[in-house]
DNA sequence: ACTCCGGAGATTTTCGAAAATCCATGTTGA
DNA sequence: TCAACATGGATTTTCGAAAATCTCCGGAGT
């Protein structure tokens, strides 16, 4: 009988323990892509993934198929999958759509939100604010933990919109923006008062001032896009793609694009 | 050497010939669900699907996984997949969101559309109008062909919005409404001038009157929802689900919900 | 120099069976 | 009577290998 840890320790799959291998590798792969552990545009070969995640091809195919529908990977029949590439045009498209979608979710939330919604916003904002003092790393905003709390904050803002589909949609678009956010955090010289932006947004929402809140979230969203453009607008698109490959999070084992 | 048609004729897969079995079964399964050949809420067992589509489990799993992300099937880890159920609450949610999304796509299209966009609208409207005289069936609006042309018409309206993501999103929501549309067509006693609605919408778009066009598409979308509610609002939710199971298209081999 | 072909290796896709899990049913014990 | 539990068939999930396809590279012919 082989010892329990005969093979690779499976790279600590399952953030919240998906009962299925497929689900676990899906979540893990999604995080790895969002944090650029697999570079934008990189080829995702089954053999490499199999070795990295210590699973067979079946769960991998299923995970990649789902991610393809989500837009995080691009698959072409019979010639494999790659990580969805990044580009300024793509960023523009996401940004425009995200303004509308997040704006809508926020508007509906402000209409329909109750005390619980307000409380959750305050809590998540507080939690997000504390990350700077709690986390020792040099760039806390690139940490897993900051991203988690940032995600939770924006989700809390939209949570009372009353539409599960809208929530899922905005979460997807939020995810798709993640890699661009990392670029700004890593390379932008301009200091950004994101805490202030988040606080102003929260205040407007709690004051039930939909117009102001929507204007603020638009500015918040466009701000990121503007900063990316400020850095990479002049340089070629290649630069952006390559830079994205360098902001990968720590436990990296991913090779760059082929 | 076995003859080309040694095994089952594979049920005429591949509307536009997806090169991959997985892709073909995905498209086929999607159509079958949209046309209620598998009843809303019905259990989708691999063995039954394997027999019906004459493919192995791997392509089926991939297709179901994708459809789950699209929202057309619901999967629960380790206890299989079912066709997404229908309900009045679900219809309300889709309707509200679809008004916003289709409205947005239309608005952007009207801003950005060129001659080619206009021409495509006129063409698709004409094509859609002709279906009544061309198709001999008793209820042409339940036919594959009408659905195809109706889909094409609404896609043409949105086509100039400039965002591939928005196009995909609106297509998904349009699909998710399909089963409710079929219910109205099959059971509503109120005669509906859908041709008139489509014409008015087209005219407003071609006149570049965004406000009017958006108002019209809202009315168009809500009209369907109102008719469903008129039929099933009083009766229990069960009735609606069961009725949906009866509007399935012809080459039916699908059993009802388990 | 350049295009077209052919073959070897790499890669994806699919199948069939093994393993793991679920579910309905009947049984035990209080 | 009833809840907890065991049991066997049904079902999903996963693997490993076979089949199909793609990609790259060198050679032939123009």
Structure report:
Two copies of one chain form a homodimer. Chain A has 258 residues and is mainly alpha-helical. Chain A folds into two domains: 10-85, Arc Repressor Mutant, subunit A; 88-245, GntR ligand-binding domain-like (Four Helix Bundle (Hemerythrin (Met), subunit A)). Chain A has eleven helices and three strands. Chain A has helices at residues 21-34, 46-53, 57-70, 88-112, 115-129, 131-134, 144-158, 164-187, 194-206, 210-232, 237-246; strands at 43-44, 73-75, 81-83. Chain A has a three-stranded antiparallel sheet. In chain A, a hairpin with a 5-residue loop joins β2 (73-75) and β3 (81-83). Chain A is globular, with a radius of gyration of 19 Å. Residues 1-16 and 252-258 of chain A have low confidence and may be disordered. Chain A binds a DNA duplex (30 and 30 nucleotides) through α3.
CATH architecture assignment name of the largest domain in chain A: Up-down Bundle
Class by helix and strand content of chain A?
mainly alpha
Oligomer: homodimer
Total helical segments of chain A: 11
Strands of the largest sheet of chain A, in order across it? 1-3-2
Helix content of chain A: 55-70%
Tell me the number of structural domains of chain A. Answer: 2
Based on Cα principal axes, name the global outline of chain A.
globular
The pair of chains with the biggest contact is: A-B, 29 and 29 residues
For the termini of chain A, the CA-CA separation is 40 Å
Radius of gyration of chain A: 19 Å
Q: What is the CATH H-level superfamily of the largest domain in chain A? A: GntR ligand-binding domain-like
Topology order of chain A in helix (H) and strand (E) letters: HEHHEEHHHHHHHH
Tell me about the largest β-sheet of chain A: 3 strands, antiparallel
């Amino acid at each position: 009988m082989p010892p329990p840890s005969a093979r690779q320790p499976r790279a600590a799959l399952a953030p919240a323990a998906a009962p299925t291998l497929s689900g676990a590798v899906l979540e893990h792969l999604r995080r790895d892509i969002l944090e650029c552990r697999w570079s934008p545009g990189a080829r995702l070969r089954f053999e490499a993934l199999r070795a990295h995640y210590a699973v067979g091809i079946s769960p991998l195919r299923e995970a990649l198929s789902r991610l393809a529908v989500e837009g995080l990977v691009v698959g072409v029949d019979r010639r494999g999958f790659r990580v969805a590439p990044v580009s300024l045009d793509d960023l523009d498209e996401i940004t425009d759509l995200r303004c509308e979608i997040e704006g809508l979710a926020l508007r509906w939330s402000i209409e329909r939100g109750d005390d619980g919604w307000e409380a959750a916003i305050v809590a998540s904002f507080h939690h997000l604010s504390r990350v700077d003092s709690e986390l020792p790393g040099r760039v806390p905003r690139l940490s897993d933990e900051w991203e988690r709390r940032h995600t939770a904050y924006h989700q809390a803002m939209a949570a009372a919109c009353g539409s599960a589909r809208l929530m899922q949609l905005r979460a997807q678009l939020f995810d798709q923006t993640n890699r661009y956010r990392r670029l700004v955090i890593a390379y932008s010289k301009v200091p950004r008062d994101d805490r202030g932006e988040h606080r102003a947004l929260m205040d407007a929402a709690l004051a039930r001032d939909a117009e102001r809140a929507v204007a603020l979230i638009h500015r918040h969203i466009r701000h990121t896009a503007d900063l990316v453009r400020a850095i990479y607008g002049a340089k070629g698109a290649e630069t952006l793609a390559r830079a994205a490959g360098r902001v990968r999070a720590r436990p990296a084992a991913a090779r760059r694009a082929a």
